[in-house]
Amino acid sequence: MVVGAFPMAKLLYLGIRQVSKPLANRIKEAARRSEFFKTYICLPPAQLYHWVEMRTKMRIMGFRGTVIKPQDEEAAAELGAELLGEATIFVVGGGCLVLEYWRHQAHQRHKEEEQRAAWDAMQDEVGRLALALEALQAQMREVRAQLCAQDPPSAAQEASAAQAVSTSKLQESAQV
């Protein structure tokens, strides 16, 4: 069935990421309208971004030591709002990625615990079967010792004793 192949958690994460885009657009609009937001939240990262970008371009072109003028306030506010919106989408996407990773790790731990429990159960079963085998071998030695202590058996008696031992083994293994 298709529903089982598409986990609901992934659908939820996809929905959260889609909701984060309009949220980022609202944050951008608020950043453009609010002076406090514009001055203290948007402008510093935008000016830093502009400075790093221009310095890198100047170095690539071979100009060293040139003074980089700050970007005008309107362009910096616009750039800061864009950076903030992209950062919001990035943080939401990264959060979804981290949550998916944690969910996957929990699933893996649960799976490993189940495998470990199954392995322990198999080892217990092997130990129990080894003890049953030792008990059967001891019983077989006793029967042989009793048969050897009696008169030398004929071939028919040996076959009858071997059949009795194998029958008792089957009965005991069926009881186990």
Automatic annotation (TrEMBL):
<protein>
    <submittedName>
        <fullName>Optic atrophy 3 protein-like</fullName>
    </submittedName>
</protein>
<dbReference type="GO" id="GO:0005739">
    <property type="term" value="C:mitochondrion"/>
</dbReference>
<feature type="compositionally biased region" description="Polar residues">
    <location>
        <begin position="165"/>
        <end position="176"/>
    </location>
</feature>
<comment type="function">
    <text>May play some role in mitochondrial processes.</text>
</comment>
<feature type="region of interest" description="Disordered">
    <location>
        <begin position="150"/>
        <end position="176"/>
    </location>
</feature>
<dbReference type="GO" id="GO:0019216">
    <property type="term" value="P:regulation of lipid metabolic process"/>
</dbReference>
<keyword id="KW-0175">Coiled coil</keyword>
<dbReference type="InterPro" id="IPR010754">
    <property type="entry name" value="OPA3-like"/>
</dbReference>
<feature type="compositionally biased region" description="Low complexity">
    <location>
        <begin position="150"/>
        <end position="164"/>
    </location>
</feature>
<comment type="similarity">
    <text>Belongs to the OPA3 family.</text>
</comment>
<dbReference type="Pfam" id="PF07047">
    <property type="entry name" value="OPA3"/>
</dbReference>
